[in-house]
Amino acid sequence: MDEHSMDEILLRSYEGEELQAAVEAILFTTGKAVETPDLARVLHTDTGKILEALTRLQQLYAEPGRGITLVRLEDAWQLCTKKDFYDCLIELELTPKKPKLTEVQLETLSVIAYKQPVTKSEIERIRGVNSDHAVNRLIEYGLVRELGRAKLPGRPILFGTTEEFLRIFGVSSRDDLPDISPVKLEDFRQEAEKEAETIVV
Q1: CA–CA distance from 42 to each of 23, 39, 53, 78, 184 (Å)?
Q2: Which end of the chain is more exposed for a tag (fewer CB within 10 A), N or C?
Q3: pLDDT averaged per 10 residues in sequence order, the chain, 201 residues
Q4: What is the DSSP letter of 179?
């Protein structure tokens, strides 16, 4: 886009329904209160026309079937959720979020799921790289837990999956997990070696 075209966009003025739509777009995008003079300035019009557009928007949002409303805060305006729907938002906010796992975390979780109870050194022997961060993340997500300690020198911690893991992956027990071949575990190890090669010391 050349400089002349950009100047035309910046100097563009809005009228009627287009002005109303532009005001709505600004309020929606900013997500906070915007003062009337600021709306007039960026839309290259006078405050009177801005107030007319805001009044029409208020009437529009006041109609039944709308979930948001336009609120005036002295000389500023903001789009807000109607009070009738606060309970929905609270419930959504309190709903536990499913963790988004990286490939490294998925590989680590797979090893733990199929080899449990398993120590961190065993996980690392299969994957070929340090797995501290991945295991700690999986514990934070509630997918992995400590099962006790192995009867080995140093009494290393044993790790296994949790009930949350079963819920998220839709299985009722470890026995319901699909079979995995030694070849797949070898794939994990080879992928981990490639990962290790990309790490800059």
Answers
A1: 10, 6, 14, 16, 59
A2: C
A3: 47 80 93 93 92 94 91 92 85 71 88 90 88 92 92 91 85 72 54 49 35
A4: P
